[in-house]
Amino acid sequence: MQLELTDSNGCVVVADSLFDLNPEPFFFIPNAFSPNGDALNDVFGPFGFGYDWEISIYSGTGQLLYKGLNSPWNGKTKGEDCPADVYFYHIRFWNATSSESVKGMLHLMR
Q1: Measured between alpha carbons, how far is residue 25 from residues 6, 30, 79, 99 in Å?
Q2: Among 74, 87, 98, which residue's Cα sits nearest to residue 25?
Q3: Rounded distance, CA 80 to CA 45, Å?
Q4: Sign of torsion, CA 26 31 81 64?
Q5: What contacts 76, CB < 8 A, 6 or more positions away?
Q6: Is 7 within a domain?
Q7: Per the confidence metrics, is the pTM higher than 0.90?
Q8: What is the 8-class DSSP label of residue 73?
Q9: N or C terminus of the chain with fewer C-beta within 10 Å?
Q10: Inside any domain, residue 35
Q11: Residue-range definition of the domain harbouring residue 81
Q12: Please, what is the Cα angle at 21 between 12 and 18, to 5 degrees?
């Protein structure tokens, strides 16, 4: 496939490349986040595409703090900030051809 682009100055660039318009689904789960309002790592959840997902967050004593469908955790429970600590997650993710379940721990940093 050949791609030809012309910019506003009339310059033409021609590229011979293959483009993958249907990339493989992937999933990345970070191990820490800092919900401090600086717009950097303010929520915890998986990153990627090609999957729907459900997340559950638990305290160290096993108390369910958050459950969301395709929605990351903001570090709060019942409207209150959770303290900096280690928490546990269970994420179930699926698409039309597969499903997986992942458990792990994460660090909430303030």
Answers
A1: 32, 17, 33, 12
A2: 98
A3: 19
A4: positive
A5: 35, 66, 82
A6: no
A7: no
A8: B
A9: N
A10: yes
A11: 27-108
A12: 50
